[in-house]
Amino acid sequence: MAMSEAPARDHTATLVDELRRARADGTPMRIVGAGRWLDAGRPVRAERTLELRTLVSPEIVHYEPGDLYYFTLPVHDMAKAQAFFAAVLGWQFDDPERGHVVNITAPPGGVRQVEPDASTRPELWFVVDDIHVAVAKVRELGGTAQDPVLYDSGWSADCVDDQGTTFNLSVPAQKYSL
Predict the structure, then answer these.
(1) 106 near 35, Cβ under 8 Å?
(2) Is residue 174 classed as helix, strand or coil in its secondary structure?
């Protein structure tokens, strides 16, 4: 470290105070990036994440390029899948018709009913800065990518890499990202 550089400061206490104030005035706030709890890039000690998790809300998240944004587990029987994952992982579902898991945070996700002959491979959405540039790069590198589609949750494109691995690209909608 150069003489003019100050050592990295742990901002956990400041972040906890800021989150408590935000929570007190009803401001929804959840700050996450690739499994790291962050506040504008300030480091937070891992042992404080449990305390932070109790103070935050899942509505707003900070995502970095490459972060896992959302996952879906395609299932053939929604009710059985909800019961199974509730028992195994403690997942809670707010609606028997929807598969969104309401009690997990990083990343959010759920189950989705598919036809009996459809694939049940997990679906993963990864954050990119520019969906069109990322789709072009997938194609340039020998993969395939569907044209991007704009949903309420943001931009999405289904892709397959040059070895046959399926994945999805996403630019989260502003309402879901800091």
Answers:
(1) yes
(2) helix
Kindly state whether residues 161 and 84 are assigned to the same domain: yes
* pLDDT tens column, 82-104: 999 988 888 898 888 888 888 88
Task: Verify that 172 and 87 share a domain, yes or no.
Answer: yes
Cβ contact 158:165 at 8 Å: no
The last residue of a domain, from among 62, 92, 112: 62
107 lies in the same domain as 154: yes
Note whether 166 and 83 are same-domain residues.
yes
Other C-beta atoms within 10 Å of 45: how many?
14
Domain termination site, one of 11, 37, 62: 62
Share in percent of the chain as helix, strand, coil (round to 5): 25, 25, 50
Q: What sign does the dihedral 141-143-144-147 (CA atoms) show?
A: negative
With b for 16 or more beta-carbon neighbours within 10 A and e for fewer, the 147-164 pattern comes to ebeeeeebbbbbbeeeee
Burial class (CB in 10 A: 0-12, 13-18, 19+), 36: middle
The per-residue pLDDT for range 98-121, each reduced to its tens digit, is 888 888 866 788 899 999 999 999
